[in-house]
Amino acid sequence: MADYLPEEIVINILQRLPVETLLRCTAVRKSWYSLITTPEFISSHLKLAAAASAAASNDETPLLLIRRRISSSERYELHSDGEPFTRVFKLKFPFSSTNSYFTIVGSCNGLLCIYDDRVDYTDTIILWNPCIKKSILLPEPNLIHNSYGGFAQSFGFGFDAIAGDYKVVRVSCVDDLNPQIELYKLSTGAWQDISSHLKLERCFIINDRSRQAYVNGATYWIAGYPDPDSDSCDFIVLFDMSKEVFGEIKLPIEVLGTDMMISKDLMVFDEHLALVLCSDSGVEPTFCVWVMKEYGVEESWCKQLVFEFHILGAIFIRPLWVRKCGGVIAVLQDGGLYSFDLNDDEIKDLGVHCSGYEYYEHSFHVDSYIKSLVLLERGAYFSDSVTCDQLMPNQQIYDCDSIGSRESD
Q1: pLDDT confidence of residue 313
Q2: How far is CA 188 from CA 138, 139, 220, in A?
């Protein structure tokens, strides 16, 4: 049929096919392989997939990536963020961690950025597209942790829409001194120390294990000041992936000066920056969600959701994600994921559980996900087999499996 159709129509059809079908198409015709692996096709396919996900029609519900730990293994799955909450893909994880599990920096355009430093610091940082079995092991950063002095590091991951480049920013501090900023660009494959190029108003330290939120081309973290004589209130620090500069955003006025024991996380809610506060120290422990309605406008913070723990009948809860429908996905003390509809106080067991032991709440990670062809143009050199041979010899590599062939939980 392709021989009788104009090329532009064939391209238009191919751009709308799912990733799994396109991978099979690359083996059908050499011309299709050459087309599908071009950066231009990959970019166009991604834009159409992102538009379909944003529209969230009945036929195209958004996907959520869920990572959990079962016994000694990490499980990565894609779930449909709708009703019912169903698993649509089970992803085979081909890497082995020196620690209990990898830390997930974030998800962007089908790529995951993960690194291995949960307890023991390593220099293993990976960009991974699980649906096309492609990954890149990043080179060793310039500043390496040693056994002398205090050391802390945080990562951010995102996309520079102007340059069309994926970037990883690393913020590392030794003995609470001025942070060293390093930037990895996929286009160059190298780390660059950009500390001297930046003009930081004040030295800051990103809160330990602060989860990044990536929205509007920037990555955000909860941070504070190392100087005990300075303003002790937390704030939000951001890194613009295109301009390669840092900025600061104040927390909502109502939050400033509150109990410092309140945990703070950043998430994305309906393409807006969201601040999730969680406290179990009050008479009626609660968590609430603040949303920044206008990008970068501190006065636009709005309290969106409030939920009281006692309704759950649970001792501990950790919110993980704010759904587009307005509900909240959280992990409870039994090691299971639950969804809370704040409109009618309805609680649903999502049927996803991890091993119920110490640190269970940290083994869960929930993030948005979109299947893409990003990294496909990199060729065989960047395949999982190359990455895994460096990390773990003889590690078997698997395809992205559909739910029809999934293993039992």
Answers
A1: 61
A2: 11, 11, 24
